[in-house]
Write a sequence for this structure.
């Protein structure tokens, strides 16, 4: 039986390099990766079988991905889909079951209050990737107390918990700075939930309390950084929360926002919500960007289709990095954090203020 060691010897590289090639790690170049794969094919080596190593070590061979809210919303959100795509692209997870576990929000009805907790506590997974969960969520605390290998994407952010994120503060600064430099001063923000419970209605940015989830708190800090740099009072910016990241709740929030604030620019915390704003504006006969500019966040495929100005974060790369981190933690190694850069992508939905 051909082993990874045999491939390494034949390819003239270390065994670690072969492992990195199959895991998609950037530690080997594309040229070296292709060379290793070519040698492996000649020898009849099909890649590492992590499931087998799990069985030998007494592990289950399953990894959980915890997402907030109903699974239907996770499937609809293109950013979550891209994160999952990145996770499953890690070669060492090819033979491992990936279990998607919904985690109810604190204000969810009692029948679905703790759907993920039993699976985690019964030991049905060897480790978990937690995506955008509040630091104090009971599921997070259960995972921590059990000592289950875990990695966070964006949040929670807790001591000794490895995480991968994007530079959300810079992303928020870039979003707000983009519309400010185009002369907009009647600015509104359509955001995900700021706290554990949904806060309905419009309010000013100056009235927004401390944001519960770290990644969103960083974006709001970025908004305030840009406003301060342009000498614009945060009280002049209107904020509204959508209860979920989907078109229906996004459109409802957008309609209320347009009615209460009459903004010339709308900054959103996801491309889904930006798409919802565009749909509402089109229905009202309001021209974009001549009358209202709209900017999103993520640069999911929908952004390119709509010609949406947005902030690009490397979603698939975040998923791949989180998966590799989790495998390292399961193997007994510890990686502390990874912060990915963001980029402003200007398309057709933003422009100078008119009048």
């Amino acid at each position: 039986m051909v082993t990874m060691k045999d491939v390494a010897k034949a390819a003239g590289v270390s065994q670690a390099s072969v492992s990195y090639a199959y895991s998609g790690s950037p530690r080997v170049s594309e040229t070296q990766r292709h060379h290793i794969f070519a040698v492996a094919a000649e020898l009849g080596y099909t890649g590492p079988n992590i499931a087998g190593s799990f069985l030998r070590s007494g592990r289950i061979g399953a990894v959980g991905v915890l997402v907030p809210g109903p699974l239907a919303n996770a499937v609809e959100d293109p950013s979550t889909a891209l994160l999952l795509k990145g996770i499953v692209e890690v070669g060492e997870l090819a033979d491992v079951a990936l279990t998607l576990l919904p985690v109810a929000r604190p204000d969810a009805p009692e029948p679905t209050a703790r759907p993920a907790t039993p699976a985690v506590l019964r030991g049905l997974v060897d480790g978990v990737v937690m995506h955008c969960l509040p630091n104090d969520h009971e599921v997070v605390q259960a995972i921590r107390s059990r000592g289950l290998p875990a990695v966070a994407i964006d949040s929670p952010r807790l001591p000794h918990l490895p995480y991968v994120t994007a530079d959300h503060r810079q992303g928020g600064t870039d979003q707000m700075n983009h519309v400010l430099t185009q002369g907009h001063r009647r600015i509104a923000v359509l955001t995900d939930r700021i706290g554990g419970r949904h806060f309905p209605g419009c309010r000013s940015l100056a009235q927004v309390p401390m944001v519960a989830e770290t990644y969103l708190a960083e974006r709001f800090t970025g908004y305030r950084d840009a406003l301060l740099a342009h000498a614009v009072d945060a009280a002049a910016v209107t904020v509204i929360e959508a209860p979920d990241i989907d078109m229906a709740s996004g459109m409802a929030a957008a309609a209320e926002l347009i009615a209460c604030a009459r903004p010339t620019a709308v900054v959103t915390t996801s491309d889904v919500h930006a798409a919802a704003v565009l749909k509402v504006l089109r229905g009202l006969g309001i021209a974009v960007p001549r009358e209202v500019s709209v900017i999103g966040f993520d640069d999911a495929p929908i952004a390119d289709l709509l010609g949406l100005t947005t902030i690009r974060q490397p979603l698939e790369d975040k998923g791949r990095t989180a998966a590799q981190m989790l495998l390292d933690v399961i193997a007994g190694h510890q990686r502390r954090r990874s912060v990915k850069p963001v980029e402003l992508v200007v398309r057709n939905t933003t422009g100078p203020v008119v009048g």
Summary: The radius of gyration is 22 Å.
